[in-house]
Each structure stands twice: as C-alpha cells, then as structure tokens.
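Observation: inputs received (chain + S-adenosyl-L-homocysteine).
Thought: call the complex predictor directly.
Action: predict_structure
Action Input:
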Amino acid sequence: MQEMVKLDTMKFLPGLKYLCKEISSVIFRKDCPVCGRLSAGQWMRSCSRTSESTESNQDNMMLKHLISKIKSTGPISVAEYMREVLTNPVTGYYQHRDVLGPQGDFITSPEISQIFGELLGVWCVSEWMAAGKPKTFQLVELGPGRGTLASDALRVFSQLRSVLKESEISVHLVEVSPKLGEIQAQLLTEGEQHLLHDPSGAIYRTGITKTGLPISWYRDLRDVPKGFSFYLAHEFFDVLPIHKFQKTKQGWREILIDIEPKSPEKLRFVLAPHATLASKALIQQRDDERDHIEVCPEAGVIIDNLASRITEDGGAALIADYGHNGTKTDTFRGFRGHQLHDVLTAPGTADLTADVDFSFLRQMTEGKVTSLGPITQHQFLKNMGIDVRLQVLLRNASDANTRKGLMDAYNMIMNPEKMGNRFKFFALLPYNRLISKHDTKTVKCGPTAPPVAGFSELQL
Ligand code: SAH
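Observation:
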C-alpha cells in the first residue's frame, strides 16, 4: 500500500520532489574544506596563497622538454602545448600532484559543498526513472579530480536504495592522472586490498566502492564498457587542448608557441605565417564576427562519442563547466595557488584552462541526441532543490560554525557574482526523451514526457 502511494507521488511530481524528500535523512560529509574545517577568513587566506614548490626540477624539465621540441620541429600549436603541459605522462601538471583544494591551485564546486554532488546524483536517479528504470546502469565520470563528486553522488544512490531497488549499478572513472586516480581510490573504496592494479592496462584499477558497487578506472572514454550510462563531466572539458586562431588581412592564422629569440629560456606566442592544417580543418565560419577564436577538437571527439553511446545504449550526460555560446574570444589562462598565472611561464606548475564553447558541443551532437542548456549553475541547482537540501542540513547542524560553513559554501557556488553565473550546465539526452509517447493506432497522445530535472523550474 505504501508502495502505491510512493508511485503515485512520483507520477505526478516527475520524481524530483520525491527524491529530494527521500535524501533528506541528513548525512554530513566530513571532509568539506569550506563547511567545517575552515572559517570564511581562513578560507580567503587559503585562496590567495601561492605554491612554494613551483620551480622544482621537474617543472624545469617541462620547459626544457618544450624548448627542445620546438627546436627540433618548429613552433607548436597551443593544443600541443596544453596537452604536453597538462598530461605528459612524466612531467604533466596533473600526473603527480593533488592540484585541487585549499593547498592546491584551484577549488571546484564539489569540493566546496557536498550538496553539489548530491544533487547531481539525484539528477541521475531522476533521469533513470524517466527512462523506465532500466535494471542495469553505469555511472561514468570524466576527470573526477579527488573523487568527491562521485562520492557524494554514490551516497545519494545508497540513500535512495528503496527507489533504485535491485538495480545493478557500476562506477567507471576516466582519469589520466595516476596521482588523482590514487586519491579517488582512497576516497571511494575501502582500502588497497580491494584494488587490482594494472598500470599498463586499459582498465588500470578496479575495486569495490564503500557503498558496495564495482568500480573501474580508465584513461580513455573509449575503453569504458558500452551500456545504459549516466556521464558526468565537471570542469573536465575546460582542460582539453584548444587551438587558437587570429583573424588577419590574409585570413585566419593559427597562433603558435615559439622560443623567445632574445631570451631562449622563455616562450612566446607567434602567428603562423601560412594556413596550418588546423586552421584549414577547424575554421568553418570564416565570416565569424570575432577576430579571435578557440576550437577544441578533442572536446568534439569526446562529445561525439558520448552522443553515440547515448543513442545506442541510452542514458544521459551532464556537463558542467565555465563556458559560452560561441561568443567569447581569448579565454586561455592559467591558475596557480588560486591566482591567475601567465600561461607561458613555468609550464607544468599551473593549471591551464579555456572556456568551453557550448555552441560547438551542441553542433557536434545535432541530429543524434537532444541537448539542453547551457543554463547557469545558479539556475540548475535552484531547479534541483538546493534550497531545500540546504535547509535540512542547516536545521541539523550541531553548531554555529558548521551553519556558517554551510552558508559560505552555498554562497560560493550559488552567488551569481561568484560561481553561480560563471558555471553552466549542459545535458545530452536520448533523441526521444522530450517527445510525448504517442499512440499511433488511436492517434491519442500518451502521457507527456516528464520534464528534465534541473532544466525546468522546480515547484516545491
Ligand atoms: N571534476 C573534478 C576535477 C576537475 S580538474 C572537480 O570538479 O573537482 C580536471 C580533471 O580532469 C582532473 O581529474 C584531471 O586529472 C582530469 N583530466 C585532465 N585531462 C584529462 C584527459 N585528457 N582525460 C581524462 N582525464 C583528464
């Protein structure tokens, strides 16, 4: 009988309000840098610290490596520079360090507030319900950082056991950094004894999560098994290598990176004297009003892969990042110690990033899947019921410090002047997800498709 009531509620309130209520049994995350351990004042000081270990031998090795590369083959594209600097297996920025959090170079929303990952977990369950609750599904995360988002989402899956019932869920993380992979394993699994480690294999690590689900690590999305999946990518697309192009009187020219002639230990930007392969292949809109554009072909390949997987096996992708709709120009920048950092100085010691061009992502998936967004993080989280979740946590917080931490974290991720407007949410869904079921024999319209959580206003 109780089951009947629950199902009816879900039918009329497309799941989301129900899910929000179901996860309201309060669980606090222990390791949140803002809520709890640091006061707002300490947090600000942490934000403005600079890294001490920046000019280490390893970092010099990266500069030397780039200089010898340029000496032997000529100026390199910005994409090649970014790829080398960030993910070179020996000296790449991401490979051997924990770059996130107060002690690192930048902080991300899941690290700031536990509610962020929880609501993304709720989003997956809501879309799973809309898809007719398939028995098996995969949670796939691209670029999981410290594994915090996955951990918060998996906690929600566990809390929603009564909804997910006997579903067989597996977790798949796509991560190039051995160091971050290790940190993710420590957070998400019980301990080393659960992990099989094969550094050279396509699946380089496997284990069982603390919530009892099989989990595997890959370097490449193409190695993740096919199947109904939810794909999450938070601050992942912005680190993929971009090509940069400048409009000139002679047409579009690629911007390359060369050695500074007056100071051979330094790098500088130069303009390719002729069209390059990339400028011929990647610039389609020659009448673009902008005089400078950035194109990320790797993002195109990955989004195309996601769209094919969703078309063939079902599921959905949720991409959150800073970005624009094909309007911005020069967004390539570096971050070190939570401050802007010149992209050509001390390569390998700072994060390199560029705004995601959502119009390009949309264009690459057209005709295959439905896309929604980009909408602001503020709007998405509001629609997902962040205020309700915050109230539950506040009501149950044991002291004023914790409450202040929760509010500071909320403010950081929601305030339009902070992360609220800068970050955007974009979703890929199966082509027919938003089409009402149609009975062709009686020409009657079936039930309307439930709205997609986060992208339509939540009436609580
Ligand atoms: N999503 C996390 C971390 C963002 S930082 C968060 O929001 O906190 C970018 C992440 O992407 C890191 O985990 C980095 O190691 C990973 N990464 C960078 N380039 C990658 C690539 N080409 N393939 C897979 N992972 C990559």
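Thought: report the result.
Final Answer: Residues 58 and 91 are 6 Å apart (CA to CA). The chain is about 40% helix and 20% strand.
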